[in-house]
Amino acid sequence: MPSAEHRLQTLGLHVPPPTPAAASYVPYLIHGDHLYISGQLPMENGLLKHAGRLGDDLDTFAGQQAARLCGLHILSQIKAALGTLDKVSAIIKITGYVASAPDFHEHHKVLNGASDLMMEIFGEQGRHTRAALGVVALPLGAAVEIEAIIKIA
Amino acid sequence: MPSAEHRLQTLGLHVPPPTPAAASYVPYLIHGDHLYISGQLPMENGLLKHAGRLGDDLDTFAGQQAARLCGLHILSQIKAALGTLDKVSAIIKITGYVASAPDFHEHHKVLNGASDLMMEIFGEQGRHTRAALGVVALPLGAAVEIEAIIKIA
Amino acid sequence: MPSAEHRLQTLGLHVPPPTPAAASYVPYLIHGDHLYISGQLPMENGLLKHAGRLGDDLDTFAGQQAARLCGLHILSQIKAALGTLDKVSAIIKITGYVASAPDFHEHHKVLNGASDLMMEIFGEQGRHTRAALGVVALPLGAAVEIEAIIKIA
C-alpha cells in the first residue's frame, strides 16, 4: 500500500509552509498519541486566499477549494509536528466552520473539499468523523476554517 | 440499577436507524476507549424533520424536539458502533449547534432536549459537558446539529 | 519556576466562584488524565456581564475583557475539579465562540483575552491549540463562550 507521503508526491500536491498561529496560541500540540491542530485558514503565501461568505460571495465549488486549502494546511502542520505524514495512524475528527449566508445549506459539500483530500492522502486511515456548520464570520474574514484531531502511529 | 437498554425499552423510545454520513466522512469512529460521533441532524426516514431557525421559524419547544431527535440519532450511532447502549461508560461531551436568529438566546434550553435524553437513558453516566451555540445555518437547512464524544466501558 | 497558584496570587487576579451549569449538563468532567470544561460564559455574581455582538455592540477590546472573564471561569472550574491550578499539566485546546456581526473579523484578537490569561497563569504549559469563530448568537445573549480541554498532571 502506498504511503501517505508517496500519495502526496504522486498527486503532485503542494503543501504550503506551516502558518504560524495568528495570535496567542500554538498551531499544534502533541499529547500522548493525539495531535491537536488549531483552526486552519485558507492562506496562501501569508495572505488569506478565500475571503467572504458562502451563498453571498462564494459558491459551493469555491468553498470546496477553500476547504481543500485548509486541508493542505492541516497536512502542513502534521509535517511540522511529526516530520512526515507517514506517522499518521488516523484522522480522528475534523470540525469545519463555513462563513455563510443564512440561506446557504451546503456546508457538508463545502467540507468535502478537505475530507476528500484526507482520503486521497491517507486512504482508509483518512476516514474521519466530522461536524460542518455555518458561522456568521471567521477571523480575517476567511470563508472556511478547519481544525483537526489526529492519531499518531 | 436498570441498564440503558432497559431504560430505553421502558420509555418506549424509538431509536431511528443510523443515518449514513451525508458526505465524505464516517458517522462514527472508535479510538481506544473513545467513540467519536459525527454531527447528527434531526432526520426522520431519511428526510430532514426539523428545518429552519430558532427565533424565526421555530420556538424553543420545537427546537427541543429537534435536539431530542438528534440525541436519538446519537443513540442510534452508539448502537451501530457498539451493538448495545450498555457498553457506554460515559457521555463525555456533546456540542450542539443551533441555527438561530441573532436575537435568540435560549440555545441552552434547546440543547436540553438532547441532554435530558442522555440522562433518561444513561442516568448518572449520562451527565456530560457541553457547549451550545447559535450558528447562522446548518447542512440541509437543519435547525439543530449535535456531535458527541462517548467513553466506552 | 513559580507555580500557577503562585502566579495567580502575584497577579492579584480574582477567580470567580464556579458557575453551576445553566441547564441539563455538568460544568466539568474528568476522564483519565483529561479534564473537560463546558462552555463558560462571561458571568459576574450570577449575572451575564458581557452581552451583545462584537462589531455591533462591543469593540475588540471589550470582547477581550469578555474572553478574559470566560478564561477566569475556566480557572474557576479547574479549581473546582482539581482543588488547585497546580495539578494542570497542559491546556490542550480551547474553542472560542464570539457572537459577532457578519463583518467583524477579529475573533482571534478577542480570544487572546483568554489565551493570554492561560499563558500568564500556566506559562509554557498554558500554550494551547485553539479555534476561534463568529457565531450568530449565544446562550443568554452572551458576547463570548469558551470551552476547554485540560491535561491533568
Order of helices and strands of chain A: HEEEEHEHEE
State the oligomer.
Answer: homotrimer
Helix content of chain A: 25-40%
The fraction of residues assigned to DSSP E strands of chain A is 25-35%
Q: Could you tell me how far the N terminus lies from the C terminus of chain A, measured between alpha carbons in angstroms?
A: 16 Å
- Contiguous runs where pLDDT drops below 50 for at least 5 residues of chain A: none
Output the strand order for the largest sheet of chain A: 1-2-7-5-6
C-alpha-based Rg of chain A, rounded = 15 Å
What class do helices, strands and sheet pairing of chain A give? alpha+beta
Shape of chain A: globular
List the helices and strands and how they pair.
The structure is a homotrimer of 153-residue chains.
Chain A: H1 4-11, E1 28-31, E2 34-40, E3 43-44, E4 47-48, H2 60-82, E5 88-99, H3 107-122, E6 129-135, E7 144-152
Parallel strand pairs in A: 5-6
Antiparallel strand pairs in A: 1-2, 2-7, 3-4, 5-7
Describe this structure in words.
The structure is a homotrimer of 153-residue chains. Chain A is of the alpha+beta class. Chain A is built from three helices and seven strands. In chain A, the strands form two sheets. Chain A has a five-stranded mixed β-sheet with strand order 1-2-7-5-6, covered by helices on one side. Chains A and B meet through β5, α3 and β6 of A and β1, β2 and β5 of B.
